[in-house]
Amino acid sequence: MFSSRFHWDFRTNRLTQALGAMRRDGARILDLTESNPTRAGLEYPPEIVRAFDDPRMLLYEPSPAGALEARQAVASYYAARGQRVETGRILLTASTSEAYAWLFKLLCDAGSHILVPRPSYPLFEFLANLESVEVRQYPLVYHGAWAIDLDALAAAVSERTRAVVLVNPNNPTGSYVKRAELQTLARLCGERRIALISDEVFSDYPLGEAARSEAAERVATLAGVEECLAFSMSGLSKVAGLPQMKLGWIVASGPAKLRAEAIEKLEWIADTYLSVSTPVACAAARLLAAGESVQRQIRQRTAGNLAVAREALARSAAGILAVEGGWYITVQMPRIRSEEDWAIQLLSQESVLTQPGFFYDFESEAFLIVSLLTVPEVFREGIARLKRAVEL
Hints:
The protein is an alpha/beta fold. The chain folds into two domains: 14-43 and 291-391, Alpha-Beta Complex (Aspartate Aminotransferase, domain 1), CATH 3.90.1150; 47-288, 3-Layer(aba) Sandwich (Aspartate Aminotransferase, domain 2). Helix content is 40%, strand content 16%. The protein contains 13 helices and 14 strands. It has an eight-stranded mixed beta sheet with strand order 2-9-8-7-6-3-4-5, sandwiched between helices. A four-stranded antiparallel beta sheet has the order 10-11-14-13, covered by helices on one side. The model has no long low-confidence stretch (mean pLDDT 96).
């Protein structure tokens, strides 16, 4: 009697079972997977709470694209980063997950395909299947640095392909899209009438000191793309470390006529749900401003933890793959056992929680994913225990 969309395997894996058992026993676990900024020991400024002291929140004035003042705040966010974005190109959503759902509704029919990166965050299949859309993957390849396999991506395009998804920088590889890659993708999508969808939630978090020429090749946003229809997404969750505020956005780009038609249809979709709450829309400008201090703390945290991990693992059998941005690192473990066995051993013997690479569709062994957002004391001890486990 239920929809065929629900065809996933809901059985828990070995790592989840082991974690549940340890937590039931009251074990202290060093969690190196923490990705929730509100639980990461950051200091949130009181201006965030004061942002909701606004009598306008008691008045409901629905607007499909979202409140103009909030969209102006988003436009100012891009302006501060050197990108001009008119408010008419911005639509507010409750989250980037909702933004994906709206874009799949806009672009796809039942049975249409979207191309998504592999490895990447394991959310696309769920979001796509709930819209009766099929996921096809294209590979990211690693040769001392990550790159899009453009030939494999082009070969994956079919008559049913409606969009190519980019995660920029990728989660968990931390790799940015490069200008040459974007040129090729925009040309391909323009010729095949395929849209580009760019998830840019981690764009404000570069990692490490890149050479000027290398940094110049990184693409921060697709908001200026003109060759094809493109959509950039972000939101308060990562930009201001405020996932609980539930405010995201879509910026539409591309040829003017096509972009205008897309925005018109997106407003119809948005008007059906009207999901963005009035309080967060009224507070948006102040939340973005107050969130800058949280963002600075996150950048300091991730940079500090990355330095700790690099120093600890520099002369060990484990190594850190090259990373350019985001909140995560990929640790390559010795292939003497599977990454699942490594994760379970670290948990059961060292009380350290990590995520195996297959959670993110890594194609080969053996990789563990670690969050740089972790509280520094926990991170330092957890990495030390990981190193000890490798050396045993």
